[in-house]
UniProtKB/TrEMBL annotation:
This is Beta-glucosidase. It comes from the Bacteria. InterPro entries: Cellulose_deg_GH3 (IPR050288), Fn3-like (IPR026891), GH (IPR017853), Glyco_hydro_3_C (IPR002772), Glyco_hydro_3_C_sf (IPR036881), Glyco_hydro_3_N (IPR001764), Glyco_hydro_3_N_sf (IPR036962), Ig-like_fold (IPR013783). GO terms for biological process: carbohydrate metabolic process. The keyword Transferase does not apply. Keywords: Hydrolase. Residues 709-778 form the Fibronectin type III-like domain. The lineage of its organism: Bacteria, Pseudomonadati, Bacteroidota, Saprospiria, Saprospirales. Belongs to the glycosyl hydrolase 3 family. It comes from Neolewinella litorea. Pfam families: Fn3-like, Glyco_hydro_3, Glyco_hydro_3_C. GO terms for molecular function: beta-glucosidase activity.
């Protein structure tokens, strides 16, 4: 009976109670009882029983080895469980996962080299074979959770791939975001996948960092709102797991997006106030509103403590203060790195014990450190209650997903990309294009001769974590397809290269020969002479901005300059005095001052997805008006970092002989029409600290083109007990207006918009005046303001 009571206590921890912070526990644990072996009448097999009872019953039947197996994943070793044709072999599996397994990583891959390869039907057949082995040939028949990458679409063969998250954020479109990620959820679930390792809600404050493309930009409110819609797209609105839904994973917690020197995984030396208000804000917001089921710890250290060993962050704050009840997963090899890189554990066993005590529930992607937990429990060094708590969190996902009753997936229902998916991605691409400059040249007339020049003009541009999407339409292909239907002529020349050909995944990055490039420039100039307009596609590529996961695979840069001879190409083409439309692709902001000075129009495109060429053609020719807004400020140079808009009052006094402001600020983006945003109107201009009001503006399309605009609300606490940013985004709404049409946009104002961490580190609204600024960018000249007074009590 004592053993059973201890198990029930553990389940109560899983359901809502805090677990011991120091590893202590009641003297009686599940390990003290002999595991029950009669599974025919087991409670855990009875779907009518409460989930807590099923978890407790199953844990009570498990050996220590079987428990630890639930906290492990298999990735590289899964190829040791395969035949020569990469099909699953249960005989070999008995040597690799004899006690079962918690996760199987990336079952879409077939080759064993880290790249996907299975067709949708093969994908399903493979996961079904694994589940059959686990269900029928392991002692307790516990199925596995299958996880895949899905940063901007399921990273698998023939799936749909839209723009990188930085481009999704540029749309400022909540509904569109949810539809995109619901597309990935349907495709993933149809192939037997249960968990996706996304969305990334790191706040990107250093554009030298190679992972900027994976983020939703520099602003915590925007990342929280767009990240929440991604989670809802994956998981739905409630706890019921409907067909086509999968578990999301928020990552990376925390402080990952402003690494020292812009170097991936470098220390994050951040005050607790900034950590909470900036870097942790999206995590807290989504935990409160999205019921996200997984959170991934980050590689970096925060103020000297690696996130994978940070019990304050993962236990006290995440689970205790915020009430999170899902699982915390390691980043790939993050536990191992506590010993091998951070040097806070002297061996893998110490790393495993430190990680699980800190709140990590499962080791991804391979069993490196956590297998040592068996010995740690058996020796008494690790209290088994901590192990059981982590096991329970993983089992809960399996029970709630219905895997014990139905672990298999119908191969006939496996989904691939469809024409409807193409339409959605094409729309997302158009809404992600940010018009930075336009002297009136755009939109282009039909029938023109266009010289399409540049290293990114005819290149597949997906960015990282992509897989093998169904197709990709290059800019050249898109413009040629448009010209074939509407008249005109496309002349093409490469002009220069960013790097020699390579890939995001593979290691070598080979610089371009300057002499070869200059020959390409000469040829491009000769081609462009015959054109009415030049479309110049420059920027970066997957090799110049990528995740630096090893010293042999780097992706961060100390410079924001265009690589190679791209500026020489810009200079040479500008001498022709033919109008230039610049398209800037790549994963992060670059120094584009030269391009901006010599072009009639410039777009920041980032990565637009598999329909890139069609999206570009639609916007250039005015089929769709651009409506993207910058989710991250574009600095004038690397020396202008940091350039984020929500800085403190003393941060930007100025530079000698240089403008201190961003070249293009957060929230900025032009249209083919003009919008008039009227003066803000408060519902009431005085409220108590616990009160609410509204602010409303009228928005009118004063031009001749139907278009979308993003109305943005910024707030500034004029005087406060601790310093506050000069402005903070607290609301946005995207609307579509016909010429002459006016719509009223209203934002709620209350605690959520006005609070901050006061001098006592408590979230509070202080009495005083608040500046409410509304407009279409964070730039002061684009905002109109009104003052709200907040008093200690109602008058």
């Amino acid at each position: 009976m004592l053993s059973r009571l201890a198990l029930l206590l553990i389940v109560l921890v899983l359901a809502g109670c805090d677990r011991p912070k120091d590893g202590s526990s009641a003297p009686t644990t599940a390990a003290e009882a002999v595991p029950r072996s009669n599974t025919e009448t087991a409670i855990y097999k009875d779907v009518s029983q409460p989930t807590n009872d099923r978890i407790a019953d199953l844990i009570g039947r498990m050996t220590t080895e079987e428990k630890v197996a639930q906290l492990l994943s298999v990735w590289s070793d899964k190829h040791q469980m395969e035949s020569e044709d990469y099909s699953f072999d249960p005989v070999k599996a008995r040597q690799i996962i004899p006690h079962g397994i918690g996760h199987v990583a990336r079952p879409s891959e077939a080759s064993g080299n880290g790249e996907p390869g299975r067709t949708p039907a093969q994908h399903v057949a493979y996961v079904n074979a694994i589940q059959r082995y686990l269900k029928e040939e392991t002692r307790l028949g516990i199925p596995a959770l299958m996880h895949e990458e899905s940063l901007h679409g399921l990273a698998a063969k023939d799936a749909t791939s839209w723009g990188q998250p930085i481009a999704v954020a540029a749309t400022f479109n909540r509904g569109l975001t949810r539809r995109l990620y619901a597309t990935a959820a349907r495709q993933a679930a149809s192939r037997g996948v249960h968990v996706v390792l996304t969305p990334v809600v790191d706040i990107a404050r250093d554009p030298r960092w190679g992972r900027v493309e994976e983020t939703l930009g520099e602003d915590p409110f925007l990342a929280g709102e767009i990240g929440l819609q991604a989670v809802l797209g994956f998981q739905g609105d409630n706890d019921r797991w409907d067909p086509g839904e999968v578990y999301a994973t928020l990552k990376h917690m925390a402080g990952h997006g402003e690494p020292e020197g812009g170097n991936n995984i470098a220390p994050a030396n951040i005050s607790e106030r900034t950590l909470r208000e900036v870097f942790l804000y999206p995590f807290r917001h989504i935990v409160r509103h999205g019921n996200v089921r997984n959170i991934m710890a980050s590689y970096n250290e925060v103020n000297g403590v690696p996130s994978h060993a940070n019990g304050w962050m993962l236990n006290d704050l995440l689970r205790g203060e915020w009430g999170y009840r899902g699982a915390v997963v390691s980043d790939y090899y993050g536990i191992e790195e506590l010993s091998t890189r951070h040097a806070v554990a002297d061996d893998l066993e110490a790393a495993a014990i430190g990680a699980i005590r800190a709140g990590i529930d499962i080791e991804l992607p391979d069993a490196k450190a956590f297998p040592y937990l068996v010995a740690a429990v058996n020796s008494g060094e690790l209290n088994e209650e901590i192990l059981d708590t982590a096991v329970g969190r993983i089992l809960r996902q399996k029970f709630e997903r219905g895997l014990f009753e139905n672990p298999y997936t119908d191969p006939e229902g496996a989904l691939a990309n469809t024409p409807d998916d193409d339409t959605l991605v094409r729309q997302a691409g158009t809404e992600a294009m940010i018009l930075l400059e336009n002297d009136g040249l755009l939109p282009l007339e039909d029938g023109l001769t266009i010289a399409l020049i540049g290293p990114n003009a005819d290149r597949v541009l997906h960015g990282g974590y992509t897989g093998e999407p169904h197709h990709f339409v290059t800019v050249r292909q898109g413009l040629e397809a448009y010209a074939a239907k509407h008249g005109g002529k496309i002349l093409y020349a490469e002009g220069s290269r960013v790097t020699e050909p390579g890939s995001w995944y593979k290691d070598p990055v080979v610089p371009v020969s300057l002499s070869d490039d200059r020959a390409r420039i000469e040829h491009a100039v000769s081609v462009a002479r015959e054109a009415d307009v030049i479309v110049l596609a420059v920027g970066g590529n997957e090799l110049t901005s990528r995740e630096a996961w090893a010293e042999s695979h780097l992706g961060d840069r100390p410079s924001l300059e265009l690589m190679g001879t791209q500026n020489e190409l810009i200079d040479a083409l500008s001498e022709l005095e033919i109008p230039i439309v610049g398209l800037v692709f790549g994963g992060r902001p670059l120094n584009i001052r030269n391009l901006a000075e010599k072009s009639a129009a410039v777009f920041q495109c980032f990565y637009l997805g598999q329909e890139t060429g069609h999206s570009v053609a639609d916007v250039l020719h005015g089929v769709v008006a651009p409506s993207g807004k910058l989710p991250i400020s574009i600095p004038r140079s690397a020396g202008h970092i940091p350039a984020y808009y929500n800085y403190k009052p003393t941060a930007r006094r100025g530079y000698l002989l240089e403008d201190v402001n961003a070249l293009y600020p957060f929230g900025y983006g032009l249209s083919y029409t003009t919008f008039e945003i009227g003066p803000p109107r408060l519902g009431t201009d005085l409220i108590p600290t616990d009160g609410n009001t509204t602010v409303t503006v009228d928005v009118t399309n004063t031009g001749k083109v139907t278009a979308k605009e993003v109305v943005q609300l910024y707030i500034r606490d004029n005087f406060s007990s601790v310093t506050r940013p000069i402005k903070e985004l607290k609301g946005f709404q995207k609307l579509r207006l016909s010429p002459g049409e006016t719509q009223a946009v209203t934002f709620e104002i209350g605690f959520d918009q006005l609070n901050y961490l006061n001098a006592d580190m408590e979230y509070a609204v202080e009495p005083g005046t608040f500046q409410l600024m509304l407009g279409n960018s964070s730039r002061n000249g684009d905002l109109k303001s009104v003052t709200l007074t907040v008093v200690s009590q109602a008058r």
